[in-house]
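Consider the tokenized backbone below.
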């Protein structure tokens, strides 16, 4: 699947994402999974199982799991993956389901601390080709093109020729490796 989402609207317009008239009810949502506290790989496998057993998500595909260095964060290395699923939930409904899962797995959001180590982190990366400048849910995820822990697993599912914000994933991956060699990523396990 190749797609080029339109450019996000200006931040001052902050409008919720809308489905185009006549669009299929089942949207393709792309979700980043990550954890670096507790037993991260076991946690992510359980989350994938939870999502697969949910009637709200179908046709689930999961990348490999990767061991990754923290980016703008601290603590032990992360385990990351990317998941794609079909859903008839609206984007914010997906976000709220993911936040409920994070809470169930002990996610703590310390006040005033950005990118704290976590038992589980689930982010909506893409929702079909929609864009949203709603501060609660920015789509596409605003930092995904600078993160190997998102780009490499996403390429597992879409291929490196997938176009995102005017560049292929392969181009984004090469650019991040050149710009920030401190980001490391290594295959950990099959999904």
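A designed sequence for it:
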């Amino acid at each position: 699947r190749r797609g080029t989402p339109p450019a996000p609207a200006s931040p001052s317009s902050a409008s919720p994402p809308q489905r185009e008239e006549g669009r299929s009810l089942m949207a393709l949502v792309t979700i980043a999974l990550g954890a670096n506290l507790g037993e991260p790989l076991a946690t992510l496998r359980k989350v994938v199982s939870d999502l697969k057993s949910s009637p709200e998500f179908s046709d689930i595909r999961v990348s490999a799991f990767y061991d990754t260095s923290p980016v703008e964060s601290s603590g032990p290395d992360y385990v990351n993956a990317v998941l794609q699923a079909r859903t008839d939930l609206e984007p914010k409904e997906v976000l709220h389901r993911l936040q409920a899962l994070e809470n169930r797995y002990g996610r703590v959001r310390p006040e005033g601390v950005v990118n704290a180590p976590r038992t589980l982190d689930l982010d909506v990366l893409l929702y079909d080709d929609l864009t949203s400048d709603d501060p609660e849910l920015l789509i596409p995820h605003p930092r995904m093109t600078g993160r190997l822990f998102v780009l490499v697993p996403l390429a597992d599912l879409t291929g490196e020729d997938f176009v995102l914000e005017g560049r292929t994933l392969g181009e984004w991956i090469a650019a991040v490796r050149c710009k920030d060699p401190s980001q490391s990523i290594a295959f950990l396990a099959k999904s």
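The radius of gyration is 16 Å.
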